[in-house]
Amino acid sequence: MRRSILLWDRNTLAKPEKPLGNMLMNARVWFVGCTALMVSACGDVQSTSRSPSEGFFKELPEGVLAIAAKNQDLTSVRIDPADGCYVYRYVGPVETTSLPLRSNNGRPICSRPAVTG
User: Fold this and answer.
1) pLDDT 10s per residue in the chain (117 long)?
2) From residue 69, how far is each of 59, 96, 102 by CA, in Å?
3) Strand 77-79, strand 96-100: pairing
4) How far apart are CA 55 and CA 79, in angstroms?
5) How many CB atoms lie within 10 A of CB 109?
6) Any idea what the Cα angle at residue 59 is, between residues 91 and 70, rounded to 5°?
């Protein structure tokens, strides 16, 4: 008795397991889902937690105004609770972030002395 091993069948090539229309539908669903996910990732996360004017000084102390460098936005300054230093809101071309408020010599301006040790 002779055994033959069938490696492939002509009928399996002629009849794919999934029809082409079903594969295109799956691709469309994945495309729409991924697009929605990518667009939602571009949302402004900062505005959901608090209002933009919350926590900023209405008027800075005179000492801070005297030593602050001129190329910074002094209308949106607050104190960072992590280190006690002044930070200002920088509105860049891509994102808005908080940067340390620096003096004319480049050092950060802080409300409490730095801890050394």
Assistant:
1) 556 555 555 555 555 555 666 766 777 877 877 787 777 766 555 444 445 556 888 888 899 999 999 989 999 999 998 888 999 999 999 999 999 999 999 999 998 766 665
2) 16, 20, 6
3) unpaired
4) 8
5) 21
6) 50
- Distance (Å, rounded) from C-alpha 80 to C-alpha 98? 9
Task: Please state, as a whole number, how many other Cβ atoms lie within 10 Å of the Cβ of residue 88.
Answer: 22
Domain ranges of the chain: 10-40, 52-100
Amino acid at 49: S
Residue 86: name the closest of 96, 74, 70 by CA.
74
